[in-house]
Amino acid sequence: MGRLVVVSNRIGDPRKAAAGGLAVALGDALSQSGGLWFGWSGKINESGAPGEGELHMQRSGSVQLVTLDLSQADHDAYYTGYSNQALWPAFHYRLDLADFGAGFFAGYQRVNRLFARKLAALLQPDDVVWVHDYHLIPLAAELRALGCRQRIGFFLHIPLPPPPILAAIPGHEWLMRSFFAYDLVGLQTRSDADHFARFVVEEANATALGNDEFEAFGRRVVARAFPIGIDVDEFQRLAHSTESRETEAMLRDQYSKRRLLVGVDRLDYSKGLPRRFRAFRELLANYPENRNSATLIQIASPTRETVDAYDDLRRDLEGLAGEINGDYGELDWMPIRYLHRTWARRRLPALYRCARVALVTPLRDGMNLVAKEYVAMQTQEDPGVLVLSRFAGAAEQMREALLVNPYDIPAAAQTIQRALQMPLAERRERHAALLQRIRTNDVHWWRKEFLDALSAIEPRVRETS
Ligand code: ADQ
After folding, report:
1. Which residue among 9, 133, 266 has the greatest number of ligand 1 atoms within 8 angstroms of its CB, and so is best to mutate?
2. For atom 11 of ligand 1, which residue has the closest CA?
3. Same domain, residue pair 151 and 274
4. Fewer CB atoms inside 10 A, N or C side of the chain?
């Protein structure tokens, strides 16, 4: 295989300790083959012209990190606008929250064209290009228009909704056609892959050729599920860090008489946080033995704060936490500890270890790595229980979790109660099965499966007309 070129909206420096599992896994692959990681620098040039941006190049070992500044207009239309106010809600089944402003779409196209122009100049003929996520769906089409014939793969980290929802997106024909400029499209789950297949066959008259291959618009594409995993070993190593050990000692001391439940999310409406808080309130109301005992620590990191829907959500959650603490709290016990901030990655293992139950209850999620991180951090001797939404991509693989419908609040409360009361033998049995699966299908497996599938595709035979 030639050089690996990874393209994503934001890039991670694989050598930085704070880098997450994804940055580590992609960094590994980039270092092995030598490579390049291309993305937005995170900087906005307020006086910059739309469709233009300055390039920055940096080395991290054998990996070249190339970033691009965006003008204010491009950032607002491409990132805040089309990516996060149109595609993100629509792909999470929330057409009611989607805003398809005309300026957004033009900005999305403009930035993808800009990325393609800058990237094409850096590509070598035998490079393998791996594009990530919904910000960059049309990138391959723009690269092909500039004459790039390299193998190009795409991975969608968020869900792909069923055809009736996709068909409601203005310009969906163009969006779906963009997928056919790739050689390989990776999705998180079999059900996402099934939505892709149904959509292209029903709406784009694609021919299903078998083996997950489709032909339309004079090109062929393979679309298949590659469920993303975590770096189990890296995460377990983090648990030995000084910060993690100190945090664990502090939590065990502070909460020695309580039963801890944990939630760790970005503060996003897809994560189902208000319903989670309501289910927790129902638990306290219906199962009084949990009063003065069960404590939910909810960490919700701020994201996309300029988008109104996120502001409404923040206010909702603060109100709910205040109400529940007011109704049920005691002088020496607060039912909900709600922290609206990012928790240092090195301290996450401690939180997972101390929690008897993890609540991972999104209304819709591509995968959800917190579910896997929680399982990785439990001890075999005395593992905690994962309560997992059936609408998280992770539910397809993690059947031994307690699966819940987050819309059914009384049933969710009942499931949390069941998790809190689960006998040790059952906890061990479920945990062993889950741990084995997340170990086998970890992030290194995911990366290898995807890149092997991409390498197996011969680019010259992809064009059918
Ligand atoms: P996210 O929506 O960000 O990712 P998720 O998979 O839950 O969702 O989390 C990604 C990482 O962020 C995890 O490693 C987690 O520990 C960390 N994280 C989340 N909240 C945090 C907090 N408050 N403080 C500190 N760290 C926090 C998108 C998709 C997911 C998909 C991933 C990967 O939306 O469905 O699983 O990409 O493909």
Report:
1. 266
2. 369
3. no
4. C
